Amino acid sequence: MYGVSRPHLRNLFFRVASLISLNVQPIFVLDGDAPDLKKETLIARQKVASSQSQALPNEQNKSCSRRRLKGLMNECKALLDSLGIESVKAEGEAEALCARLNAEGLVDAVISDDSDAFCYGALVLLRNFSISSGGACVERYIVDKISRTLKLDRSRIIMMAVLLGCDFCPAGVPGVGKESILQIFEMWPEEWDAIGVFKYWIQKKFGPIVQKGSSKAKANAQYQCYTCNGNDGLNHCQECEEWSLAVNSWSSSCHCQLLASHKNLFKLEESLKRKCAEVGFGSFWNKKFDQILDEFLQSKCKAPLPVSNDLQVNCPNVDEFIALAVKKLAWTEEYALEKILPLLSRWHVQNKSNYQSVIRPREILKQRTISGTASFVVLWEWIDSRPTLAPEKFETTEPTVYLEKFCPAVIETFLEAKKSKTKSKGGTKKTKKKITDLQKPITQFFQEQKLRKVPTPKLPEEKVEELSKNEQEEEDLPDNLSFLIDDILSHKMKRNLSLVEPSELLTSTPVNHGPRKKRFGETKKSVIYDLKDHDEDEDLQDSFDKMCNVRQHLALN
Q1: Cystine design at 463: which of 66, 222, 386, 459 (Cβ 3.0–4.6 Å)?
Q2: What is the CA 374 to chain-centroid distance, rounded?
């Protein structure tokens, strides 16, 4: 990660934050002093780190003191301490202590890309562990499933590490592949101890098996034992008895009968023994092999474990983390505070302990669903004193399953307030529904005839009295007023249409008065009828004629 200050600390922080968000309680194990068996591997790694140059002195290659690794681990330990995460240091390889914690049930799994953890006795191994914005991805390997499907127990895994190569013997046995080894283990009974088999072969110096009643067996011949095959399994040859004692199994099927029933097994065993004999007995099989077994089996490890079942994660220290992030990671104080506050709140909801609590939930603001997880947005406040840069109040999002155990009263208050608010909104909706019920459909609205409202003209008091009298008389008229309409159209209307000048008469048919030019900004003039401008002749008209004239003029306008 070029351009990033101390990427190991940055990756460590975000990995811890992701594990805590997934409700994982991590324990970090630091490497101790490397065993002498690993000297060859460390020298090779140092050469790769220095691009195969001679920049590293020979003294450092001989000591293999892991100076750079120890410096990185010290920085990591300081970061973990500020986050309240437990970290322990192993006496030797970290995988050995991790596997022991897993084997004794103190941890659920071991996160490591090193498969040597199975050789040390780990039960569950998580490899290729990665967390990104898209989610978490990990490969889980379980010893019980591996033993059930591949017939590989701990002893066979150790022998595969020796034959194929590991940190303590990088080259392994030249010419030996995993396919041939798996074929041999597939044909062997599961209860046979693979380590005991190789010890027996070393004792025999990987010599070929001598067939009973014949000369030395060749690698391409089929094995036959007349002693074991002639007595229906009741009597066995001396070699079968030694084999059963070596593999710690006294099954009815002896080694000779197994070789006779599987033609390829005899060839595979003889080929494997021949390749192992080429490695040599002086430095590898007589000395280094026992050291490798002792390292993996940890026969001398009797030290008490540094971790117990009642392990409690400490509360994160905000001030220490901000100071370390600013100094080591080159973060700003605001950015460091933004990253540490969610870890602080998550520690409180996952570890309900009052003696270390520094914040408390004040109220719940709203509900949210994050990646399918029901959550609440919580407003926190400090109990006693707050850090220097921390605000008086801050918000974080916490899963509902944690808050139900941590602060059930606060959740109940929020739900009651939300319920009452929903009820009030429901009443408003009912009122609106009643109002909408009174409204007519839009189709019915346009189908109905709308009456145009016309402002009533102001009349003199005398004329108002006359109109009121005429209205009273109109109430006594018959329903059929056709005679009045005919009279108006024939006589009276002709006489009373001179309400306005002839040139101002409005008709439905346009009158041609010469070329018409439309002026810009010219608006249509409306004619307002006013009874005060009438001539004296019109006053002599009866009230009924005047009323008709008014109505007709309004209709024309």
Answers
A1: 459
A2: 13
